[in-house]
Amino acid sequence: MRKQRAGPAGGGVSEDEETALLERVAAEEKDAFDTLYRLYRPRLQRFLRGLTKQPGSVGEILDDTMMVVWRKAYTFNHLSKVSTWIFAIAYRQSLKALRRLGEPEEPESGERADLLAPGPDDVLQHQELRKHLDDALGTLSPEQRAVIELTYYFGYACSEIAQIMACPVDTVKTRMFYARRKLKASLASCREAI
Question: What PANTHER family does this protein map onto (predicted)?
Answer without folding.
Answer: BLR3042 PROTEIN (PTHR43133:SF32), RNA POLYMERASE ECF-TYPE SIGMA FACTO (PTHR43133)
